[in-house]
Automatic annotation (TrEMBL):
It holds the Pfam family Hydrolase_3. This is HAD family hydrolase. Coiled coil: none annotated. The keyword Hydrolase applies. InterPro entries: Cof (IPR000150), HAD-like_sf (IPR036412), HAD_sf (IPR023214). It comes from Cryobacterium arcticum. GO terms for molecular function: magnesium ion binding; phosphatase activity.
Amino acid sequence: MTFPIQPADIRLIASDMDGTLLDADGQVPVRFWPLLERILAAGILFSPASGRQYQTLRAIFGDRDGLVYIAENGTNIVRAGVTIALEPVDQAIIPPIVDWVRATAAAGADLGIVVCGARSAYIERSDEAFVASVRPYYAALEIVDDVTVAGAADDVLKLAVFDRHRAETRTGPAVTALGLPADVVISGDSWVDIMRPGVNKGKALQRLQEHLGISRDQTMAFGDFLNDAEMLDAALHSYAVANAHPSIRERARHIAPSNLDEGVITSIIDALPALAPALA
């Protein structure tokens, strides 16, 4: 005798944004919005889990009941406007990283740094090309004379270094070699994030699970890049999109279609077919 496959008991869905949920234009697919409403109506929580700033994620998704934000690569967790966890870096690590970025940029590299505070992000490089690379990720953004001075007056959640197409081969190894008490994470082809040791999307997801009383077995997660690795470990139902970094595809239990093929939408519907009418 055979039995039909039962839908998974999913209570929490966490998804990376860039390269995972978002399309080629960096937008949430139109077909996702009705699906999100069905997810939330079913009592399932949804967590945008991103290196993006909380203010940016909130501007995209709003204040819907059932949303929980994992922002700045897990350093800021917010639900219904209330901060669940905030994990700032040691202020002492900021000057040597800023100095390295300034020196490397002065030598001709296409580099820039974002000091990511809880209130705002701060940059001192103000050319149009760099600002255009930064602004999609930081809705609250200030151009300042000195990012170290600006950061000293805020809770700095992470430092983000932009190194066009050389994040993994130049900035990541170089910042790691500084030997600072921080975790250095490659978060994209051109981005390196520096955070408090032991803080990442996976730790944030585990903290959220404990806060909500939701187990790993009841959690689904989607990712594409190295900063998603621990988050996938924290979810039994872990998915790498087809366009993911090779190590992330190896780490996940499932492979979803690429972000260009709306893999997050497809995989949620496959696991939870009762949500399919959202796409009608």
